[in-house]
Please model this.
Amino acid sequence: MDQKKQVLNKNSYALVTGSGQGIGFAFAEALAKKGYNLVMVSLEGEGLPVTASALAEKYSITVVPVELDLCNADNCGRLYNIVKEKGLQVSVLINNAGIGSNAPFTDFDPVFYHKQITLNTIVPVTLCRLVLPDMEKLPEAYILNMASMGAFFHMPHKEVYVATKSFLISFTRSLQFSLAKTSVSMTVLCPGSVNSNNRLKAIHADMKGIARRSVLDPHEVAEEGLNALFRRKKIWVPGRVNRFLLQLNRIMPIQIKNAIIRREMDRQEALKIPLPKRLV
Model:
């Protein structure tokens, strides 16, 4: 690590939403290894204070744990105020928090979809808007928005989820133009299947063939994501198999593509693995 990087990291914080577990925690730990101090954000009850303390001790960094429910978009302002009141300089923003779903559209009530749309789209937009004026004053700063490979497909049982991820790609790619002459670089990350929690591990457990090989560990996603972010990649799909599948998607006849997608969605629904109760 060169001297410039040491100085930057010593005085810089990375803010990671949804960092109590899964991909968000993997991002937090990967950034800690690079010497970044952290603002870790998650819901109450996910053990964040203990997790934050452990990372601080292990990597000799400062970690500020913030327990907030970002499904309430007003809490974005509260989060930003906490950062400002503590005098923290955020040079990396990882908009990771999100809500997935897999069930017929009418199985969820409108309240659930409001939470999903809020967390997956309104929250990252709001946080970008809040931190950008401060970031543009820094020599270099980075924002990563977490989309999904699902954004490139039309997927039954995930209609709202994939729409929110398509939104994030469009939003990020457009904002990249506006930031082209600034010190702020943005990347949109589009992972495929990830074993980010027990529910998803159960869904992926009986996958076979190339589908099984496409499933990544959260730490693999975080490492590839940060590599793409700091190399100033505009958009990145983690995993060679996933990048191959995305290329295949572009030439595959629509009838075959839809049949494969529907079969996989039906398989996942048949497993009857519920979402956490706090989201239903």
User: Anything to note?
Assistant: Confidence is low (pLDDT under 50) at residues 1-9. The two ends are 45 Å apart (CA to CA).
